[in-house]
């Protein structure tokens, strides 16, 4: 029987990453330059197999004092192991032969895209009758063993409907591969920009659904995990879409354990994607949960406007999305000009104002002025529940956000004056 592979929507575009130096504690740290990873994916398996993400790559050259080692210890991965040594989520270990068979020897028909980690292929696991996405580490790529360990470590302790699920990994010989659930609709950026002829743009309801789902995934990382995690790489290409445009956050290679106790931040080398990286983090190297909130605000702006975070093809004053949007927030007469033209006017006016208010608060320059993720979730859940019906003669709901999340009583306020709870 011949091998068959059903390629999903392929994305081979890459993103520009930041590449500049900052000085901290008399040391120079490079801002990492990474390309986007179009189709990164995951899922928990019922098969039992012994796994220790840290132990499986211990033979790699990881220095004792490497920050990664500290992070893995902080993740308390050993506590996630049951007494018989099996991972709590039972992530499978695969042989390289199994993954070679799943992708037909990594044939071109199964190729989904490439990024800083390496190439991504669609595969099919015969023994579980399951379509998967397989990331193969590029030994010469921009990401490597450190990111591999972080991703396996973090995904092995997480399970949430808005996070891609890890099925397993391969560490045979010098091979490093990650196996995720397959997300058939690809990344969010594939549905916002450079649409091919015949592809229908996302409608307003779908955009709000995606925003709300992504926020829930971020809330899980910040609030419900112990220890909490700072994502550090939130962007459209890392939001993957399943059936019904169900969003899931992916690619956790840059994630960091968040501050605990009386600590307010984590000092680290600045890494991320230009246009999404919070300015306070980029300047100081001090990473906080509010750094992720800024990145989320950029994504929300992209969903509303249909503009890229950074677009060098636009006029000089419009190349940076946040810089372009901030002065527009001051006058509600500009709001209709900010909406994605592909929506063709099919959106709720009131819902637009509220969505812009959330985005405006998230991209505040001062991190302590940005809202808490739980309040963002509450506000976006409300917006997602208010379904827009284009056949309705007037769909400009006079209802306002739940008062605990947003003060929207005054229709004459510019977006910059709307307030989210910033606890």
From TrEMBL:
Biological process terms in GO annotation: pollen tube guidance
Signal peptide: none
Keyword field: ATP-binding, Cell membrane, Kinase, Lipoprotein, Membrane, Nucleotide-binding, Serine/threonine-protein kinase, Transferase
Entry binding sites for ATP: 135
Region (Disordered): 1-59, 388-423
GO molecular function: ATP binding; protein serine/threonine kinase activity
Locations listed in the record: Cell membrane
InterPro entries: Kinase-like_dom_sf, Prot_kinase_dom, Protein_kinase_ATP_BS, Ser/Thr_kinase_AS
UniProt cross-references to CDD domains, sorted A to Z: STKc_IRAK (cd14066)
Protein name, per record: Serine/threonine-protein kinase RLCKVII
Organism in which the protein naturally occurs: Hibiscus syriacus (Rose of Sharon)
């Amino acid at each position: 029987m011949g091998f068959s592979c059903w390629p999903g929507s392929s994305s081979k575009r890459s993103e520009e990453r930041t590449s500049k130096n900052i000085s901290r504690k008399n040391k120079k740290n490079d801002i990492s330059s990474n390309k986007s990873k179009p189709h990164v994916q995951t899922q928990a398996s019922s098969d039992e197999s012994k796994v220790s993400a840290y132990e499986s790559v211990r033979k790699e050259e990881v220095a004792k004092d490497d920050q990664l080692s500290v992070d893995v210890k902080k993740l308390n991965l050993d506590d996630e192991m049951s007494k018989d040594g099996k991972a709590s989520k039972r992530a499978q270990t695969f042989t390289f032969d199994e993954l070679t068979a799943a992708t037909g020897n990594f044939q071109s028909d199964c190729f989904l895209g490439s990024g800083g980690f390496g190439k991504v292929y669609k595969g099919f696991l015969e023994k579980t009758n399951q379509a998967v996405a397989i990331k193969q580490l590029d030994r010469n790529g921009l990401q490597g063993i450190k990111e591999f360990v972080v991703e396996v470590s973090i995904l092995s302790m997480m399970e949430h409907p808005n996070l891609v699920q890890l099925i397993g990994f391969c560490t045979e010989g010098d091979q490093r591969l990650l196996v995720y659930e397959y997300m058939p609709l690809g990344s969010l950026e594939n549905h916002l920009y450079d649409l091919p002829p015949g592809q229908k743009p996302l409608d307003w309801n779908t955009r709000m659904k995606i925003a709300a789902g992504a926020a829930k995934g971020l809330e899980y990382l910040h609030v419900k995990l112990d220890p909490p995690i700072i994502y550090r790489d939130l962007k459209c290409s890392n939001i993957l879409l399943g059936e019904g445009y169900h969003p899931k956050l992916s690619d956790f290679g840059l994630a960091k354990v968040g501050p605990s106790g009386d600590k307010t931040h984590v000092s680290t080398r600045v890494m991320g994607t230009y246009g999404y990286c919070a300015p306070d983090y980029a300047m100081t190297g001090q990473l906080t949960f509010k750094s992720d909130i800024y990145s989320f605000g950029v994504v929300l702006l992209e969903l509303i406007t249909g503009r890229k975070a950074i677009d060098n093809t636009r006029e000089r004053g419009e190349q940076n999305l946040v810089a372009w949007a901030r002065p527009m927030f001051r006058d509600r007469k500009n709001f209709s000009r900010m909406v994605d033209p592909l929506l063709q006017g099919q959106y709720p006016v009131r819902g637009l104002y509220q969505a812009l208010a959330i985005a405006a608060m998230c991209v505040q320059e001062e991190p302590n002025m940005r809202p808490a993720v739980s309040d963002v979730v509450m506000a976006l859940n409300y917006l997602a529940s208010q379904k827009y019906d284009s056949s309705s003669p007037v769909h400009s709901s006079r209802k306002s956000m739940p008062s605990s999340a947003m003060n929207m009583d005054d229709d004459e306020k510019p977006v910059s004056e709307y307030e989210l709870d910033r606890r």
